[in-house]
Each structure stands twice: as C-alpha cells, then as structure tokens.
Amino acid sequence: MQVLIILVESLIIGTLVGLAVGIGAARMFNAPTVQALGAFRTLGEMNASEGDPASHFSFGLGFFFNAWASTVAAGSFTQDVTHRVIPNWAATLLMLKNHDEKEMQDPKKMGIAGALVGAVVVAFLNLTSSALPQSLQITAVKVLVPAATLLINSVMPVIFWLAAIDGGKRSGIFGTVFGGLAQLIMGNAVPGVVLGILVGKGVDESGWNKITKIILIATILLFILSAFFRGSDLILLKQLNVGIPAWLQQIHAAIGG
Question: CA-CA distance, 223 to 226, in Å (whole number)?
C-alpha cells in the first residue's frame, strides 16, 4: 500500500514539475523578450548539444546518476533533475524522429514531453529510494557517486569542448579559453565552455554589436568575481611566495571569502 501511495504521488508531482520545466526550458529560447521559468545554464547546455538527441540524452544521463545517488543517500532531489535531466530528455523524446531543434523550442510540445519524462523520472527515483534497504543504499552511493563525479568532471568537459571546436573558430577559441579559466577557478570546465560557445556563436551570427560586447564583458566580470570570492588571488600570491597585503585579507574576511 505504501508503494502504491508513493507511486501515485510521484506521478502527480513528476507530471506537474515536468510540465513546468518543459514549458520554461522552451520559452527560455525567447528570453528576454518572453520571461519564463528556467535558467540561463539550461539554455546554454541545451544549445551546446546542438539538437542531437543522443547528445541531449547522454548529457541528461550523466546528471541522472548523480541525482539518483543523492536521492538514494539523502532522500532528496538535486537541482540537476529540473535543470538538466528533464529538459534534455524531453528534447530527446521530441527529436527522435527528426533532428529539428525547433521541436525543443515549442513550449506546448516540450511541456507534454517534460510531463511524461518528469512522471517517469520522479517515480523511478522515489520508488528505488524507498525500496532499497539501508545496506544497499550505502553500496549504491559508493558506486554511483564516483561514477557520476568522473562523468561530470572528466567526460562532460571534453564533450563540450569538442562541441565548441565543432561550432566554429570563434566558439572553439572562446570555449577553450573560458573552459580553461573555469577549470582553474571552479574546478569544472563545462560552465566556461558553455559560455564560450554562447559568445562565439553570438559573434558569428550578429557580429561585434552592443549585445555581444555586453555578454563578453559580463562573462569576463563573472570569472573575475568568481575567482575573487573563491580566494584565488590569495592562493596565487601564496604560490608566488608574495606577502599578502593586510587590506586584501581584511576584504576577504569582511565578505567571508
């Protein structure tokens, strides 16, 4: 009886969440003209897969293992379920017959596909989490977490870097530079490569106009601020055996960096 209750509740919640996520992800392609429930990284990551259903599926699969491990271990979902798994698998479902990127930009179709994917994913995660005994949960976490970590930190950056190179000269250059900076600062090159693809493709399509310059400047500021708040400047000074100024230490202490 308990399993049936979990299944019914999971199907209802998964359908509603998937519907909202699917519509929001599709409407993100029209931002900022149209506002929607979504995230900039979701748009960038879906663009990086370039309308290839296999790429969308494999991308979502990598984060699905991480989400599964988290659900089994802690009984809670990670943001990867809504930001990465559901939208990418919904796009895969829509583009199985044809590789038309316009399919994943249709809010109605993405909403329906997202509802189906969300219902299945949420039901699977909740049922497996509740069904596994404690001993198997510990074993599953020991297996899934290292596998997901390897995929996210090692395999995915390479896939996105190859996608950036394949996207053109500018995308390759910006993807390589920003990806390298992201690896040094954040420990994962994927965000930098995605931003590099967006900047490179934006310049290819629109040229160096006001919008593309603002995006480039905002991206550079993002890396500078991210490095500062992570204390990268202090680490660099220590590695160079240079004394750290007291005022700089006070600033980091004041902001909690």
Answer: 5
